[in-house]
Amino acid sequence: MENEKKKDTFPRIQASASSLRTSNPIREVVDRIDTSQMNKNKPMIPLSIGDPTVFGNLNACEEAIQAVVEVTKSCQANGYPKAVGMVEARSAVAQEFSTCHCPLTAADVILTSGCSHALQLCLEVLLEPGKNVLIPNPGFPLYKTICDYIGAEARSYALLPEKEWQIDLEHLRSLIDSNTKAILINNPSNPCGAVYPESHLKEILEIAQVAKLPIIADEIYHQIVFPGNESIPIASLSQVVPVLSVGGLAKRFLVPGWRLGWIIIHDRHNALAQVREGLERLSTLIMGANSLVQAALPNIMKNVSNSWHLSVLRSLHMQANYSYERLSHMVGLEPVMPQGSMYIMVGIQVTKFVDIESDIDFSQKLLNEESVFVLPGQCFGAKNYFRIVFCAPMDKLAEAYNRMSEFCTRHVRTVQ
Ligand SMILES: *Cc1c(COP(=O)(O)O)cnc(C)c1O
């Protein structure tokens, strides 16, 4: 009997150390939030996930959908593309991002499975255990997740809320050492909604040039900027500093599930020759991005009109303004007006509340009592802030802010 039982067992299979040290800060914080005590009388309003398609009010452009339908029906794009991507699609990206100061060709573009994959390739090609990269704080959690996996250090530089989330340049400079391999910037930014002016981008370039470091520029929100701000790819401002710019279709074209991103290699004086080879080699790991979306890319870029992009932008700008306006009238909250993207960061003045101890506590109680889900700032390294994704339709936003306002009034300390 004992022997029989032993036969049915199997020794435990070990997972690799690199897989087990891979951690996603959003998951870790969100998993600590208990959704079981949610107020069942109020339908849930999720303002938590950075996916513009959640509510169905922001839809992909008809021309983009048509382009994918056509290549699918043609049966001409069912095979393996080249690992770095189809040349026509890479040309389309090169053309879109070329300027007279930085002309690009298909050879400067590598297509990837979303911008996340582009970030992974850029970090993998530059880093290894013992090395570090400088990343923004507050910032997009994936940067650290990828570094954890590689076994390299993600070193956080501070962004300053009082300076519209520009980089604390002194702090950035102080973190550089002989093991630093790159400076990663995110502009326009998630979660802050910051858009850097030309002068600030030049200051960052200056630091990179002196330290002889390449820049990884996460520019997935390129062009998603509100009136009065300019969306400037950092590579367009330097003839010297090498830049790996990453982007993709996800946010600007409202199709995150299509999984198409890119790396644009802005090489200066052949500084990136070996990096380019490394990136090409790494791209073979997954044999290239989705063939249908790649094949449709030239028509997506050509046929989706500027007026469609402008109408999406008008809508996001209205949602941003409305969010800021409502939030700035709530006791105990300090929103920072975004200059672009789909996010607004809101400061919590914990001392003004009777029983709110932290951003996690705020998010948990708001969810329990009002069924409104926002992400605590700690997901992004920002204690006592929370992030709102303002993509929801206006009536949903209005309802969410009505509930949030009542919540704040209920929990705020009454003046003696
Ligand atoms: C959404 C997002 C990405 C990832 O984009 P995908 O193309 O969906 O992988 C990368 N960086 C930032 C800052 C983002 O917000």
TrEMBL record:
Catalytic activity: L-tyrosine + 2-oxoglutarate = 3-(4-hydroxyphenyl)pyruvate + L-glutamate
Keywords: Aminotransferase, Phenylalanine catabolism, Pyridoxal phosphate, Transferase, Tyrosine catabolism
Gene Ontology molecular functions: L-tyrosine-2-oxoglutarate transaminase activity; pyridoxal phosphate binding
CDD domains per UniProt: AAT_like
Reported cofactor(s): pyridoxal 5'-phosphate
Listed EC numbers: 2.6.1.5
Basic and acidic residues: compositionally biased ranges: 1-10
EC top class named in words: transferase
InterPro entries membership: Aminotransferase_I/II_large, NHTrfase_class1_PyrdxlP-BS, PyrdxlP-dep_Trfase, PyrdxlP-dep_Trfase_major, PyrdxlP-dep_Trfase_small, TyrNic_aminoTrfase, Tyrosine_aminoTrfase
Biological or metabolic pathway of the protein: Amino-acid degradation; L-phenylalanine degradation; acetoacetate and fumarate from L-phenylalanine: step 2/6
Annotated spans, Disordered: 1-21
Matching SUPFAM superfamilies: PLP-dependent transferases
Superkingdom field: Eukaryota
Domain Aminotransferase class I/classII large: 43-398
Modification N6-(pyridoxal phosphate)lysine occurs at: 251
PROSITE patterns, per database record: AA_TRANSFER_CLASS_1 (PS00105)
Pfam families, sorted: Aminotran_1_2
Family, as annotated: Belongs to the class-I pyridoxal-phosphate-dependent aminotransferase family.
PANTHER family cross-referenced by the UniProt entry: TYROSINE AMINOTRANSFERASE (PTHR45744:SF2)
Subunit and partners: Homodimer.
Protein name: Tyrosine aminotransferase
Lineage start: Eukaryota, Rhodophyta, Bangiophyceae, Galdieriales, Galdieriaceae
